[in-house]
Amino acid sequence: MHPLLGTLSWALLLAADASAVNVLTLDEQSHHGRLLAVEEQALVLQSQGKTHRLGLEQVVELRPQQKPQPSGQAKAWLTLHDGTHLVLPAVPGYDGKRIQVELWEQRLTLDVAQVAHLRLRKPQGEQAKQWREVLLADAKADLLVFVNDKSLDYLEGVIRRITPQAVQFEVEGTQVPVKLDRVFAVVFYRPNVPRQPEPKAVFYTTAGGKIPAISVAWEKKAFVLSTPGGLKLRLPASQWERADFSLGKIAYLDQLEPEAEVVHPRPLTNFTTRKEQLRLALEEDRLLRRVRRGRWSASRPLKLDGRVYSRGLALRSGTELSFRLAGRYGRLQAVVGVDDQVQFSQGPVLLTIRGDDKVLAQVKLSAADRPRAHRLELDIAGVHKLVIQVAPPPGAAAADDFVDLCGIRVLK
């Protein structure tokens, strides 16, 4: 057989196989093949008749080669204290101590102490904001959350039972059955949630669920997962969308909350002595210079030398960010430069990156650069505080170019 035909045949076989996966590793390489096993320290793949072992410490993401289609309609959303989020095809039962869940042809029994809340409806309009406020409420008992004229309201009490018809709710010593069509959610009171072990991966389901896992196995075209809270379940290949193995290995700075963000206003050319006008002008300039994540605006993505980037930070001159890394990472990677939207150079800007007050890199950037993109790879081993600053070079005029830090990330 011609080698090209053999490769095509293998690709066609994989496309029809539920165990066919793509694996992304820390070195940004993609590996394709049939998943044979998930071991304690490695993924085992078969590709073109050969067996390959990929160390889990290098694996960032695992995806099926063909995205499965979600099946069935969601009727309930169950969230556990360990971060597990299950999308259910039916309302689970509750007898006052345990919740019975039917999912993927499995019957799961959960102690109520594992459960944070059970939602029976999707939020509509302002309900999403109200639901977040309910979850932050300083409650001293279980909460029955209900829809009141399209808005959410809640009562404190005790959830006694949940059936396919109603929630049995006790308030001030009286038990009241509340029909499910009025119930938005129930929140179970638990003041002291024990600390959970860190997961090694997080699995995302086609229905929108999320399952953190402290152990992972692959058996009969299903993942066997154990969650930090002790739940064990089988996730069929037909129901998983992707698995994130990057926890603790890699972090994108556009997803991290900076410890501090300082915006230095530029000198105002139209100086005014009126204090209120000056204050408003400075505030407008400060807002204009705040960091943006992933894009400059809804219509302006991060773009360098014609390539569009979906991840990264967008900064203007006069901005300084600080991130607390706690010495957990060893490398920083990014592609930096003045964004393609800047047509004419206003003069260079200086990108400075410091680790614990030591300058790790200084790059002068300008719209006149050809090419505009500059690749950075920095050693940040042991760095606790990372500072990123964009400013005019010493003695230069205050340029206002748009600086992209595309795909900026820290890695083990």
Q: What does this molecule look like?
A:
There is one protein chain. The protein is mainly β and 412 residues long. The chain has 3 domains: 62 residues, SH3 type barrels (Roll); 166 residues, no CATH class; 161 residues, NPCBM/NEW2 domain (Jelly Rolls), CATH 2.60.120. 9% of the residues lie in helices and 49% in strands. It has 3 helices and 36 strands. The protein has an 8-stranded antiparallel sheet with strand order 4-3-2-1-5-22-17-18, covered by helices on one side. An 8-stranded antiparallel sheet has the order 7-6-11-16-12-13-14-15. A hairpin with a 4-residue loop joins strand 1 and strand 2. It is globular, with a radius of gyration of 26 Å.
Count of DSSP-assigned helices:
3
* Rg over CA atoms: 26 Å
> Biggest β-sheet, characterized?
8 strands, antiparallel
Helix/strand structural class: mainly beta
Number of domains: 3
Overall mean pLDDT stands at 86
Number of DSSP strands?
A: 36
Specify the helix fraction band. Answer: under 10%
Please report the distance between the alpha carbons of the first and last residues.
44 Å
Overall body shape: globular
Question: What is the strand content?
Answer: over 45%
Uncertain runs = 1-15, 280-287
Strand order of the largest sheet: 4-3-2-1-5-22-17-18
Give the arrangement of secondary structure elements:
Layout: H1 3-15, E1 20-25, E2 30-38, E3 42-47, E4 50-55, E5 59-64, E6 76-80, E7 85-88, E8 93-94, E9 98-103, E10 106-111, E11 115-119, H2 127-135, E12 142-148, E13 151-162, E14 166-171, E15 174-179, E16 183-187, E17 201-205, E18 210-213, E19 215-218, E20 222-226, E21 232-236, E22 240-244, E23 250-252, E24 260-263, H3 275-288, E25 292-293, E26 295-297, E27 300-304, E28 307-309, E29 312-316, E30 319-324, E31 331-338, E32 349-355, E33 358-365, E34 374-379, E35 385-391, E36 402-411
Antiparallel strand pairs: 1-2, 1-5, 2-3, 3-4, 5-22, 6-7, 6-11, 8-9, 9-10, 11-16, 12-13, 12-16, 13-14, 14-15, 17-18, 17-22, 19-20, 20-21, 23-36, 24-30, 25-29, 26-27, 27-28, 29-36, 30-35, 31-34, 31-36, 32-33, 32-35
